Task: structure prediction
Amino acid sequence: MEFQCFTFNPKEGIDNPALVITDDPEPHLGTVPRLCQLKRLEGQSFGFNLQVDQHSQGFEIKDVEPWSPAELSGLRDGDRLLEVNEKSVDGMNFYWVVRKIQSCGLCLFLLVLRQNEYEQALSMGLDLQLLVKASKGEHWSRPRLCYISKHPEHGFGMTTLSVNGQKGKYFVRTVDDGTAEKAGVCNGDILIWINGISVSTLTHTALSRIVRKSQDSLTVLVIDSDSESRYIRRKMPILPVVADSINLPYIAKTIHLVKRSDGYGFLLRQERVEGPQKIAHLLREVDAGSAAEGAGMTDGDLLLAVNDECVESMEHEDIVKKIKNSGDKVTLTSISMQGRNYYRELGISPLFNEECSQHCIKRQRESSPGKTTKSGRDREEKGSVCHSV
Result:
């Protein structure tokens, strides 16, 4: 019998033509996305600009400020954005991505590739989504933020138990077809957060007390145990901003208004409200049969954004001017005061769940190219779309 010998090179593998694989190229082992965690203070920006790369149509990090949360996280000029808070930006509208960043609160997670790695991956024809998936692990899934309504007879349909007696760590046991299960909670899920409170700080007695005192509903953050271990290995805290929201009771509403001969048919009023932001801008006196009523505006709702730009912290006169300067068309984002109070109690932005509404951002990349500076004004910059965050 005649044997054929093959040479082995540690760098090239076995010199055997029969082992050449002609399928799609596998992700290069050196091409590994990096997770950057940005933490800012109240009123502080993250310290970078986001723009669209006109060649690849990818999202590029620019102008990272020294000593900013962006720089301290490891973010660098030229990095290409793959995910925001564990959600892919592939094929997403630029303004959706900006809004996603704006609504994250004080903590932001960005998955990026260095510029040279990104360009190399594109030249090799690598699937960036497979690259992201490979970096997380096969059984990875996002946490779930679930709203559970209380059944008059069977309660919330779940119990909480300590994980191996560990303090501050609990798993959930659900009742078959109970309200918790219907709300998206799975039997055996790890409980991370309840009604805005991290359970890691709670004794089992305190946790049970919160459940008993909840009159009509609970909002919980849960994750399966396999995915939890992957978050721990990545040193990534499990927070509502990275979760899939399920059946939350309030959703920000996007209203597209077209001015008629008698105007839009509503008033914008500045009123005092409870909470850290003492002043709110409310939509009032919606005229019957007006453009505002026809577009679905509700009297008393809180105005969150004008033309996709957050306005909660803006001066009243500046918001009015922004609406007037929009011409005959304007896009407003609003939420009910009950919704505003719900998210405020949970410590989440009211815009958190906006993506579940009716196509919250409908702008296209080619519309309004420009750069929004920290003052909120637009200017053109080399024909690219850019936003400061």
